[in-house]
Specification:
This protein is α/β, with parallel strands linked by helices and 409 residues long. The protein has 3 domains: 204 residues, P-loop containing nucleotide triphosphate hydrolases (Rossmann fold); 77 residues, Orthogonal Bundle (Helicase, Ruva Protein, domain 3); 98 residues, Arc Repressor Mutant, subunit A, CATH 1.10.10. Helix content is 53%, strand content 12%. The strands form 4 sheets. Strands 2-5-6-1-7 form a 5-stranded parallel β-sheet, sandwiched between helices. Strand 11 and strand 12 form a beta hairpin. The longest helix is centred in the C-terminal third of the chain and has 23 residues. The protein is elongated. The chain binds adenosine-5'-diphosphate and magnesium ion (MG). The site of adenosine-5'-diphosphate has 22 residues, from helix 2 and helix 11.
Length: 409
């Protein structure tokens, strides 16, 4: 096969496809029955919380896939990052719903009624657009449960229920509007006046969930809470094994250990590293050397994708960058089988006076930006990177910097 015909089985940029989905068995076992229960007309609200890249969207997608295939539900996935108000949320949900229906063979007879009643719905050949006027908007917001009831009623012969994901409600946690609206929406559909076979699934970062709770303390009571945390060692190992074996490749033990440890249980890192190793390797065996090359390659990717945004102006001063490079250089000598930790005083004679002076401020800023943290199980003053790939990124930066200096001289 030509190199440019190689295709990576890893998915560092997307939610994982269900057949490659790894782990989370307990969460799935515990929560699938609630989806089934919803079909009897008792709506369920799920709230998935987790850090960026931890696998919220992937888990939501996994449930969605089950809802479609196993429970014959109509599903919509609304991506809500950046949306800050209720109007755009409602607009998006309705538009997505209509488009999902539009994909079905039985769409015509249902959409016909909308064509008659809602003039704000525009029908193009492949896509439906929904531009409600203020009045329609207000009506929908106030009567959302009844709007959903109507939809469910219409699709009743074809689908068992409705499954709606509102992904990344981050923007909606800035004001009380959403928390209050959602509370009253959920209350209305739990009274038993209407029985909706409905599943709602929300996702966000833990700190935003807290904000919503602060706005409306009853908000939390509405949900089945799901916290997504890091994957376990054997799960990450399993993931690599399955994918590489499927391609007829063998992973040497040392290589596996490196890949798993550098993933630090983070699904996004696991995908990045898998991808890096895939592209670095060119035979049927992943050796330790391939793994290292791949990890370095993914360290670069991660720097660009995750770290450069964190490296905002406040930490891009030349002093700080030199400290980062010094850390990267220090990391080079480090035994990869143990966690990398550092103390300020280790650097005293590796930095200039100016840089040494800046060190304390550097530490607190880097901590604020969540690039470093206190190392667990040590006395204070010992730090570690929050992600094992960050020091690799700084090491690469250091090597490039040295390289450029050499060129100049
Ligand atoms: N259970 C999983 N198994 C395999 N890969 C996963 C899993 N969960 C997430 N990923 C991968 O991790 C990355 C981040 O996942 P994503 O679901 O987008 O996280 P989040 O929504 O929390 O930011 C993606 O590349 C995705 O493919
Ligand atoms: Mg996501």
């Amino acid at each position: 096969m030509l190199d440019n015909e190689k295709k990576s089985p890893f998915q560092p940029e997307m939610p994982v496809s269900p057949e490659k989905f790894e782990g989370r068995e307990e969460i799935i076992e515990k929560n699938l029955p609630f989806i089934y229960q919803s079909l009897q007309g008792h709506p369920t609200h799920f709230f998935i919380k987790g850090k960026r890249g931890m696998g919220k969207t992937s888990l939501a997608d996994y449930f969605k896939n089950m809802a479609e295939i196993k429970y014959k539900m109509l599903t919509v996935h609304v991506f809500n990052d950046g949306v800050h108000n209720m109007d755009s949320l409602i607009q998006q949900i309705v538009e997505r719903l209509l488009n999902e229906i539009n994909r079905e063979t039985w769409a015509e007879k249902i959409l016909k009624t909308f064509k008659k009643h809602v003039k704000s719905v525009e029908f193009f050949s492949t896509k439906i657009e929904f531009h409600p006027d203020d009045e329609t908007m207000k009506f929908l917001k106030d009567n959302f449960p009844f709007f959903l009831e109507e939809i469910i009623d219409k699709i009743n012969h074809e689908k068992e229920g409705l499954f709606i994901i509102i992904d990344d409600i981050n923007g909606l946690s800035e004001t009380p509007e959403f928390a209050n609206w959602y509370k009253s929406f959920a209350d209305t559909i739990s009274t038993g006046i209407i029985e909706l076979p409905l599943v709602m699934l929300l996702t966000t970062y833990p700190e935003n969930a807290q904000k919503l709770y602060n706005f409306n303390p009853s908000f939390n009571r509405l949900f089945k809470h799901i916290e997504v945390k890091g994957l376990r060692y054997f799960e990450v190992e399993d993931f690599f094994n399955k994918i590489f074996r499927h391609m007829g490749m063998n992973v040497e033990k040392e290589a596996m250990d490196l890949m798993v440890r550098f993933s630090s249980g983070l699904p996004n890192m696991m995908q990045e590293i898998g991808d890096g190793v895939f592209w670095s390797n060119n035979d049927n065996t992943i050796s330790k050397d391939d793994a290292l090359k791949g990890i370095i390659r993914s360290g670069e990717e991660i720097g660009v994708k995750y770290l450069q945004t964190a490296l905002d102006k406040s930490i891009r001063s030349e002093n700080y960058l030199n400290i980062f490079r010094a850390l990267g250089n220090d990391f080079k000598e480090h035994d990869l089988t143990v966690e990398y930790t550092f103390r300020k005083k280790d650097f005293a004679n590796k930095l200039t006076d100016k840089e040494n002076k800046a060190f304390s401020k550097f530490l607190s800023r880097a901590k604020e930006l969540k690039i470093i943290e206190y190392a667990e199980g040590y006395k204070s003053g010992v730090y570690t990177f929050t992600n094992n790939l960050y020091p690799i990124y700084f090491l690469i930066q250091y090597l490039e910097y040295e390289n450029n200096l050499n060129k100049v001289n």
